Amino acid sequence: MSQAPESNSKQNCTEKNSHYETLNVAPDASQEQIRQAYQALALKYHPDKNPLESDQFFRINEAWKVLQDRESRRIYDAERMLDSCREDYFINETLKRRDFQLDVVEDARWYGCRCGGRYLLPEELAPAETCYIACDECSLVVQVDP
Ligand SMILES: [Zn+2]
What is the pTM of this model? Predict the structure, then answer.
């Protein structure tokens, strides 16, 4: 087990609010709860009504852009775990894309975690992109290089 490299673990340490905090929802809120929270806040902080809070309106929309989509939310969650400044998150392993096995039944690429869970490779990942994937069972994270 190796600790997350500096560049990854420090990135967002100064960020004061997560997108979840901005929308005032729990990190495990449903898509519907997030949508309702966004709509209420967007109304409340709309620049027409609240010109002094335009920063907040901007943050709310940023948060919504990421969280409204399941896939971008999932990626955000994985990145957030790494950037959360908590010392109990580690990059468990660094893998290459070819290390993942193809599951023909589910049509998905996966790699087995030592806990028995799986790391699922996002289908639409850009070919040259490095990404971080959280185990679907535990808090371990793998780095996947192209
Ligand atoms: Zn695991």
Answer: 0.49
